[in-house]
Amino acid sequence: MIIKEMSLNDLEEIKQLFRSVFTIDPWNEDWSDEKQLDEYLRDIMEVRNPLVFGLYEDELIGFSIGKIKHWCGGTEYFIEELCIRNEYQGKGYGKAFFSLIEEKLKEKGLNQIYLTTDRDVPAYRFYKKIGFREIPELTSFFKEF
Predict the structure, then answer these.
(1) Strand, helix or coil for residue 131
(2) Which of 98, 102, 100, 104 has its CA nearest to residue 127?
(3) Which fold would CATH assign to domain 2-129?
(4) Second label for 60, Cα 20 to 30 Å away, from 9, 43, 91, 137?
(5) CA 28 to chain centre
(6) Is residue 85 within 8 Å of 62, Cβ to Cβ?
(7) CA–CA gap between residue 20 and residue 131 (Å, rounded)
(8) How many secondary structure helices (H) and strands (E) does the chain include?
């Protein structure tokens, strides 16, 4: 298992894994519109300080798409999307991936990771299990029109 930094050059590989994970339970998202998926991933990868990691074991089995964000508490890795290929979930790959990410972040002088997820999905319990703390003072807002 190895970790490597990825870029827009790896977009097709990322799209394939993204679609395979997020179009089934528990997410069930509709990513059938190729242009919409391409635009979404470009939106989160073409930022000022992008940082994308891939986890490989012969093939891409996981990725983390985020950015380096400077904050009063230090410099953080703000994760927009993260996934592990379905057949590798629940087998320690996610935990190992985060350990490798943390090593890379420490080398870059970063001192924290920030991410959001839904409370009613397995990822919520996973993040708590590997040491992430929930911030009860924060909430998310959404307005449809």
Answers:
(1) coil
(2) 98
(3) Aminopeptidase (3.40.630)
(4) 43
(5) 17
(6) yes
(7) 27
(8) 4, 5
Q: For the chain, give every domain's residue range.
A: 2-129
Q: Give the pLDDT band of residue 45 (cuts 50, 70, 90).
A: very high
Question: What is the band of 17 on the pLDDT scale with cuts at 50, 70, 90?
Answer: very high
**Per-residue pLDDT tens over the stretch 50-100:** 999 999 999 999 999 999 999 888 899 999 999 999 999 999 999 999 999
SS3 (DSSP) at 126: helix
Q: Kindly tell me the burial class for residue 85, based on how many C-beta atoms sit within 10 Å of its own C-beta (0-12, 13-18, 19 or more).
A: middle
Is the overall model pTM greater than 0.90, yes or no?
yes
Sheet holding 59-71, edge to edge: 2-6, 50-57, 59-71, 74-84, 112-114
Which range is least confidently modeled, 15-19, 20-24, 44-48, 135-139?
Answer: 135-139
Please tell me the total number of residues recorded for the chain in this structure: 145
The residue assigned the tokens 């298992």 is 1
Q: Omega before 26 cis (within 30°)?
A: yes
